[in-house]
Amino acid sequence: MKKSAQLYSQLLFIAIEQNELTQVESLLQEKTDLSYQKNSQTPIQFAVSEENWDCVSLFCTRRPDEADKARYGYALYMAVKKQKTQLALDLIAAGANVNYTSANYYYYSTLHRAILNHDLKVAEALLQHGARPNYQAQGQCTSLGIAYDNDDLEATKLLLRYGAEATEKLMLTAANEGKWQFVEAYKQIQPVDPIMNLLEKLSSENLKKLEDEARSLGYIDSISHEFMLDPVCTVKGQIYERTKITEWLKNHDTCPLTGITLTSKELTPQPEFKREIKEFLQAAYDKQIEEQKQAQKIREQEIARIRAQEASKIEELRPSLYQEALQTIALQEQAKAEKNRGLIAKELRTTIKREEQQKLELQRPTIAKQLQERLEKQEQTRLIQERRFEQFKLAYYQQYSNTLFKNPWSTMKQKLERGEISSIEEVEEYVVKQPNSRTAHLL
What we know:
- The protein is an all-alpha fold.
- The chain folds into 3 domains: about 1-180, Alpha Horseshoe (Serine Threonine Protein Phosphatase 5, Tetratricopeptide repeat), CATH 1.25.40; about 195-305, 2-Layer Sandwich (Herpes Virus-1); about 315-440, no CATH class.
- Helices cover about 65% and strands about 5% of the residues.
- The strands form 2 sheets. Strands 4-3-5 form a 3-stranded antiparallel beta sheet. Strands 1-2 form a two-stranded antiparallel ribbon.
- Strand 3 and strand 4 (about 240) form a beta hairpin.
- Helix 9 (about 145-150) runs antiparallel to helix 10.
- The longest helix is centred in the C-terminal third of the chain and has 90 residues, at about 310-400.
- The radius of gyration is 48 Å and the shape is elongated.
- The model has no long low-confidence stretch (mean pLDDT about 85).
């Protein structure tokens, strides 16, 4: 069975990497070992590192055991950091550790992150599920301090309602900086009443079942017909909710239940009676949680029964699945090797190119010298040809001036005067065409 769970864990890693959501969901329904690690990562941590949030959301369908709550807590922290609000709420409901802290970022808690991002919906869900409002990160940084630094009055009020404590230093800082709205919030907002908190957690169906018993025990206020949050006693011994009886006594001097005139409007707090109401509701809430767990257990047993019917099919497929997993791993290794070969080839090409460049750099002075010599030689040749042409023209005109040689219709003379022949090369071309001319004899 242990081998089977590890096999499913390996398959789960592959399915997450390939983003096969259907396979991920199917494997999570099996007895997959979620604590199995590959490269020091569990499946949910691997999904987070791949930023495959669709896969992470599928983990919410399977409640973590005590050992996995911290890993779910890491996923929750990263979801809050990446501002994945709905995913964060699903992970909280699934049972993730709401007090996870990040060693990589000043030991911030998940609540710190939610307040930093102004994600009050997630922040309240964290507080409702037991997040510590007064936890201090590195440098004594609290969630309340972050809310103050960000001028987030709404977040400040939320934290105060759930028991965050404003230090004297924080109040004095707010006053010195002229942020009196924060000072007023620190002074006035009271934490959520424990009885009210329990009333909000209890289902309406269970509250209705408790009503008759609570009324017989005197926990229901006779004015508002609701559970008392702050019970007080009149001089006649009747117990009421403080806010309701105080409002009544503004316009009456009689007991609202008996109609008897009260000799005094003095009200006496009843802390023990309040504790009884809280314990009564806490017991009801604990029972509700237990019933929910039992219902969840029954559902899981039913799912297990259905899965057991398919167990034989899975057993038949297991060898092929195992073989497929081995083949997939082999293909991954082959792909990795191909990638490494490609990287080596690329590095080799880069090295060859660099060596060629270095060789060219070494040869550059020699090439430049050869080019310079070639240019100088060409320039010398040009100068020689120019001198030959000048000498030819001089010799030609000297002979032309001779009366015996002089010919007004000399073709060469005309070409020279019109500039049709301007170089010794052109003279040589002319001679090739007129080999019996005087020019040919002169040249």
